């Protein structure tokens, strides 16, 4: 996207993921910096008030857990790190909860792993929960679920998680706040002649050569994980900004269009990239035969597939599986992630969405495949 600036790119955004790194939420790694948390909450509340949907990815659990347990140095044993994260996560969400309460907002704790987002059913569930929270104007606070995985804790990288969440909810932008003003041509802690990169294309291979590892004992991922996160976010057409969390009112200024930090633009793709992601995962496990009305709704009107337009269901599949949508003549129409398993799909096929709760005994999505999870063929 040549000629893109923070102003042209960010002022049009509505759904944002903000990632604050360990270096910004802790007091040199010992406990939480409550003033800093209050500062993020104030800015996010102001953006929320202006109609932005903001998800916060925040580190800090291990640092807080260490302090609560009276540990003065970061343990090396993975299980001790996991224990610290479990203790500290309580403090992290308590702190955010009270900060957001000052602004009359609810916060929600969401703990995720990379594996959750690679599994289609969990992907759909996480997406539905997060988008529902956003529609309720609640601020989701996301961290890694350090209890059940160890890879993340070893690499200590919430940057990747931020990008995965950006893909998951189709966010327009990912803002990574850290302790440096942005991406420099080399690690500024080691090379004082390094200069700030104001903007570049996300995924540009030369950026990876500039980025080094973490420069402090607190941060873990360094700049490389941020560059790779921007590349990943660009896969769903989201732009990334890497900026300093020490800049006063950085979030407010960015979304007013002030040029701060490094802008990594996503290429404009003809097909929404999350659908490309879907297209790459298309291993069909079932088949839905659609009537003419449903085919028109999908092809001409860009609508979701409702159960009423499904004439026949074949195959055995679970919620989140990829199914083929075909015409009565067998022509391929679309593929998508289905919201119901095959038994449920058989029961609701041909029926109105408002009857789903009566037919199944529990309520669910009105769509059998949401248009965001559907690729036309
Ligand atoms: N090219 C670069 N430009 C800026 N910072 C860099 C670069 N290469 C490495 N770094 C280091 O990355 C650090 C930020 O990453 P990290 O410590 O993991 O922070 P966070 O906790 O915010 O994720 C900086 O303090 C800096 O020393
Ligand atoms: N999930 C862990 C660590 C994550 C972490 O340090 O990530 P980062 O902020 O990218 O360096 C925590 O909350 O302490």
From TrEMBL:
Identify the pathway. Answer: Amino-acid biosynthesis; L-proline biosynthesis; L-glutamate 5-semialdehyde from L-glutamate: step 1/2
User: Which transformation does this protein catalyse, written as a reaction?
Assistant: L-glutamate + ATP = L-glutamyl 5-phosphate + ADP
Q: Which residues bind substrate?
A: 59, 146, 158
What keywords is this UniProt entry annotated with?
Answer: Amino-acid biosynthesis, ATP-binding, Cytoplasm, Kinase, Nucleotide-binding, Proline biosynthesis, Transferase
Q: Write down the EC number.
A: 2.7.2.11
**GO CC list:** cytosol
Specify one Pfam family: PUA
Asked if the Swiss-Prot or TrEMBL record annotates the protein with the keyword Chaperone, the reply is no
**Major location, coarse class?**
cytoplasm
Biological process GO terms, please? L-proline biosynthetic process
Per UniProt, subcellular location reads as: Cytoplasm
Q: Any idea which GO molecular function terms this record carries? A: ATP binding; glutamate 5-kinase activity; RNA binding
Return the broad EC class. transferase
| List of residues binding ATP | 19, 178-179
Give every PUA domain span. Answer: 286-369
Q: Provide the coiled-coil residue spans.
A: none
Family as reported in the entry's similarity comment? Belongs to the glutamate 5-kinase family.
Q: What is its biological role?
A: Catalyzes the transfer of a phosphate group to glutamate to form L-glutamate 5-phosphate.
Q: What is this protein called?
A: Glutamate 5-kinase
Please name the source species: Gallionella capsiferriformans (strain ES-2)
